[in-house]
Amino acid sequence: MSKTVITSDKAPAAIGTYSQAIKAGNTVYMSGQIPLDPKTMELVEGFEAQTVQVFENLKAVAEAAGGSFKDIVKLNIFLTDLSHFAKVNEIMGRYFEQPYPARAAIGVAALPRGSQVEMDAILVLE
């Protein structure tokens, strides 16, 4: 099976030895996104702004792959403070419609660059 690298200039450039996403067959594996502004590569401030930026970054990569949030089948959310979980649900409701993707929310000690939230996703394209 061939692998295709997916990139979007509307999402932060990879800051390590990884791709923004890899397409294998009709499945797209999206790397974790933290709340970097793709223009400045700086972390946005505040939990709500960080969560929105992560969703916008994921959206840009999904679109570069030829998909959308409707194609996400699995979403992983990493939080440094699980007390923000209700806010994540509220914001997620702005981006997703039923049927919602399968999801995990995981509490972690720290994330890159001091981010409060990171997400990765798997899409299946028609």
UniProtKB/TrEMBL annotation:
SUPFAM superfamilies: YjgF-like
InterPro entries, sorted: RidA, RidA_CS, RutC-like_sf, YjgF/YER057c/UK114
Annotated Gene3D superfamilies: RutC-like
CDD domains per UniProt: YjgF_YER057c_UK114_family
Entry's family note: Belongs to the RutC family.
PANTHER family: 2-IMINOBUTANOATE/2-IMINOPROPANOATE DEAMINASE RIDA, 2-IMINOBUTANOATE_2-IMINOPROPANOATE DEAMINASE
Entries under NCBIfam families matching the protein: Rid family detoxifying hydrolase
Protein's name according to its UniProt entry: RidA family protein
